[in-house]
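Folding problem:
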Amino acid sequence: MVLVIMAGFQQLVLNNHASAKDLSVERENFQSVINGKQTDLFILENSNGMKIAITNYGGRIVSWFAPDRDGNMDDIVLGFESLDDFLNAGSSSYGATIGRFANRIANGRFELDGQNYQLDVNNPPNHLHGGPGGFYHVVFDAQQLSDRHLRLQYLSPDGEEGYPGNLLVQVQFILNDANELTIDYTASTDKPTVINLTNHAFFNLRGASLGKINDHELMINSSHYTPVDETAIPTGELAPVAGTPFDFREMTPIGRHQSDDHAQLEYVRGYDHNFVIHRDHPDKMTLAARIYEPDTGRIMEIETTEPGIQFYGGNFLNGSDIGKNGQPHEFRYAFCLEPQHFPDSPNQLDFPSTRLDPGEFFHSVTTYRLNTD
């Protein structure tokens, strides 16, 4: 069934209904052929002038123009001006759709129905973000359904990056006039497998590469987080945030405790941890995080159906990647808030399951809402 659906989808023609005019990126810089498949740039735009550029190479958010409190538009996503720059970047995850499995799997191994699977150890000693050939390096089939709706699809073949099953994945990006971007993920498989999808946009609400994000004020709707070992793998504990640098239950500047003497911060040079989202209804959209940038007045709220959210504070950016407008991606010049299942879930039986079986459908929804004060 998966193969039949995919065969029909491959007949769709790449169709970009909107113009990239006035963006910091040009469409022609993203038009190429990778592994025999056409890459392109697609623009979503609403009636408020918000514009989001997405490429089907890696399902990446390339730029996102949003207003500040005075109506001035700026790009709030770190990225690059061309496909070549993404290909040559020090990190593969900028703005990308992450799969088959977001975050880390310990030692690149997991067991499913008595069979052991060995994945690539691309973040020694662990497997990270689906491996070196993860979704950030694939070309999705794309159809722009309207100026506000982009649909991407990819068939990950059985055994790709060591994962079992032919996995058909669809990712939809939908922008509305409330300045909300919804990312809707669905997937099906023909063999038991594991799956964990997210988007890895690097945000700076002051503007891309316009200084550190330490003054951004963050709220995470979470009373517990998953501590990690020295290799950033969860220990299995759900630890309370109260009394720790991980307490973001109220709006708190990111930099307030980021340099505290705390083993968890030392392991990953700051924040790179999964937070357990507090939710009253397991499968309904829930507010996961709110973040505020005081200079511009921009506010981002993230709602999701996912059980966790990974907060990363840009700890491994070092200025070696030069982004749009010649701006380097410096240490802590961006944050990532990635709704997802918990890291290493296939090996942690007490964590929410990431298993997907034939006949089931994986479905996950995340909405990013932009406002100003």
Remarks:
- The chain has three helices and 28 strands.
- The chain has two domains: 2-199, 217-352.
- Confidence is low (pLDDT under 50) at residues 1-21.
